[in-house]
Write a structure and sequence with these properties.
single chain; alpha/beta; Nucleotidyltransferase, domain 5; six-stranded mixed beta sheet; 38% helix
Length: 245
């Protein structure tokens, strides 16, 4: 059974998780590109993610998706879309419902890809939308990985330049890991019993309705006062009885 959420302190104590298979950077169509497509089409579940060169000014124009990551259990492919575009054969994988593509915040990634090429998405699974079925409220890949797999995922390359002429080894490992870990988390969840969150548990603590406080119990009347009231009632009853006589 997973935790509702994990803290940053708990994550820091975990071992580092990273993709240990082969990483392939694809910058143009050709033999390596076709071999990547062949491998990905042979899979039924692949990890999915994208990277975009960040902008650091609120007035700057947002960049297009620069990198598409698709990963199986032992091979991760990094397609440099800023150099080769989003090609038709690659779109066919994104439109194939028989190949599950597991990611986090997948809708935003797909929308970004559709700005490069038109395709109808199919077979996408968003971990952020299904984790609640296993009693998890976390949404970020880092917290999900800690909760589900018990590993810490490095995010040091997240804001690096994804349109650089050459991707560094650190960038490649980061990008491959982000796609691969989504696949691993999904497969682990499928093997785990579900414990769905209630509608209230899905909400962050600050948005949950406050419990209705019970009215305080009346204070007990002092014993001396009760005795005086009983004595007064007896006296009144005696007076009424005498008057009736």
């Amino acid at each position: 059974m997973y935790k509702l959420t994990v803290t940053s302190e708990e994550i820091e104590k975990l071992p580092l998780g990273a993709f240990k298979g082969q990483i392939h950077v694809i910058s143009s169509p050709g033999f390596e590109y076709l071999r990547a497509l062949s491998y990905l089409k042979s899979q039924t579940v692949i990890g999915f993610d994208t990277e975009t060169r960040p902008v650091f000014s609120p007035t700057a124009k947002h960049n297009k998706v620069a990198l598409l990551q698709l990963s199986g259990p032992d091979h991760a492919y990094l397609f440099r879309l800023n150099q080769m575009g989003l090609r038709r054969r690659l779109c066919s994988i994104l439109s194939n419902p028989a190949i599950l593509k597991i990611g986090a915040a997948s809708h935003d990634d797909v929308c970004g890809l559709q700005k490069r090429a038109s395709f109808v998405e199919a077979g996408f699974v968003d971990l952020q939308k299904i984790a609640w079925q296993w009693g998890i409220r976390d949404k970020s890949v880092k917290k999900l990985a800690a909760n589900i797999l018990g590993v810490k995922i490095s995010k040091t390359q997240q804001l690096s330049n994804w349109e650089a002429d050459e991707l560094s080894e650190s960038q490649q490992l980061y990008a491959a890991t982000d796609a691969w870990v989504c696949r691993e988390m999904y497969l682990k969840l499928l093997k785990t019993e579900k414990h769905p969150l209630s509608e209230e548990e899905k909400l962050p603590p600050e948005q949950r309705p406050k419990p209705v406080e019970a009215a305080p119990a009346p204070e007990a009347e002092p014993t001396q006062n009760r005795k005086r009231r009983r004595h007064k009632r007896k006296k009144n009853d005696k007076t009424v009885s005498e008057e009736r006589s």
